[in-house]
Design goal:
The protein is α/β, with parallel strands linked by helices. It contains 13 helices and six strands. Strand 3 and strand 4 form a beta hairpin.
């Protein structure tokens, strides 16, 4: 199949290569670059081109440096081997192609090993703003430029350590129902922290508030809305608020949090882990995100090896 041009190329939700990998149970895959269609490359070009002015206006300086460091081609879907050639010498991180959703513990463990699970499909060019699931533009143009920064990369590794701490805590709980309850609560806290920082975080800078969250950095509409809209609530980061704040993924975020610096972000992850060890994540507020069976199982299986 690798040498055959699929009619839909590698379009999100319509990629035979991905469907076959999933049917065969292959999570970690290669990037079959020859399968990208002309429409796929055109979608990348249009996405990248329209974001450039918005990045210059709203993105934090470390992200802009990262875009330059990766030497991304604005006209073609990037080859991950080229991305990694520029990325790895800077922070040791690599983009790791996957066939779909990565269960949470495995995702965090990848971060701990300086690997970022990366989607290889790209959204349909007819609906650039509609994203049914992550795509290569979100992952490579939204996330990976931040991975070129040493302080941010170390924060991701530290966050990956938190997942192992959660597994260690679970390993020490003998009652199965209590184990599931506490792992579920801890997972919600970790997921909320990741959402309000790595995905949708704002940061103070000399030029005012800037965006560092990748969900914002890859969204043409929401990156501007996050800074300019009077309807968005923006608060200084408070850990107790974040771990108890549910979120919904299908609309612009009405509530965002602000960190002071990347050093501040790193310290917050350390505080999050301390709270976990002290039991302060065992009873967070209910609500989104839901904990899927694969996510829960990934933590429970990891606990067996602790």
């Amino acid at each position: 199949m690798a040498g055959v041009q699929a009619p839909g190329g590698l379009t999100t939700t319509r990629a035979p290569f991905i469907e076959q990998a999933q049917a065969e149970g292959r999570l970690y895959i290669h990037q079959p670059y020859e399968l990208y269609s002309r429409d796929n490359h055109d979608a990348w070009r249009r996405l990248f081109t329209r974001m450039e002015d918005r990045w210059q206006r709203y993105a934090n300086p470390r992200f802009l440096q990262g875009i330059d460091s990766l030497c991304l081609d604005p006209d073609r879907v990037p080859k991950l081997e080229d991305v990694n050639r520029f990325l790895s010498p800077l922070t040791g991180f690599q983009a790791k192609p996957v066939s779909g959703y990565v269960p949470s513990f495995l995702f965090f463990d990848c971060l701990r090993n300086r690997e970022f699970p990366t989607t290889i499909t790209i959204r349909d060019g007819a609906t650039l703003d509609y994203l049914p699931e992550p795509d290569i533009f979100h992952d490579i143009a939204g996330h990976v430029p931040m991975h070129t920064d040493r302080a941010f990369a170390d924060t991701l590794v530290r966050f990956g350590d938190c997942a192992h701490t959660a597994a260690e805590i679970a390993a020490g709980i003998t009652d199965e129902r209590e184990k599931i309850r506490r792992v579920t609560s801890i997972f919600k806290a970790l997921a909320r922290f990741f959402w309000f920082t790595i995905e949708f975080g704002l940061m103070r800078s000399e030029g005012g508030l800037k965006v560092f969250g990748s969900g914002l950095l890859s969204s043409y509409g929401e990156i501007a809305n996050s800074i300019d809209s009077p309807e968005v609530q923006r608060y200084p980061m408070q850990l107790e608020w974040v771990i108890n704040q549910y979120f919904e993924i299908d609309h612009y975020q009405p509530l965002l949090f602000i960190v002071d610096s990347f050093d501040h972000l790193f310290e917050l992850v350390g505080e999050l882990e301390r709270w976990m060890r002290e039991g302060r994540l065992d009873n967070v507020a209910p609500g989104e995100p839901a904990v899927s069976e694969p996510d829960l199982r990934s933590f429970l299986e990891a606990s067996k090896g602790k």
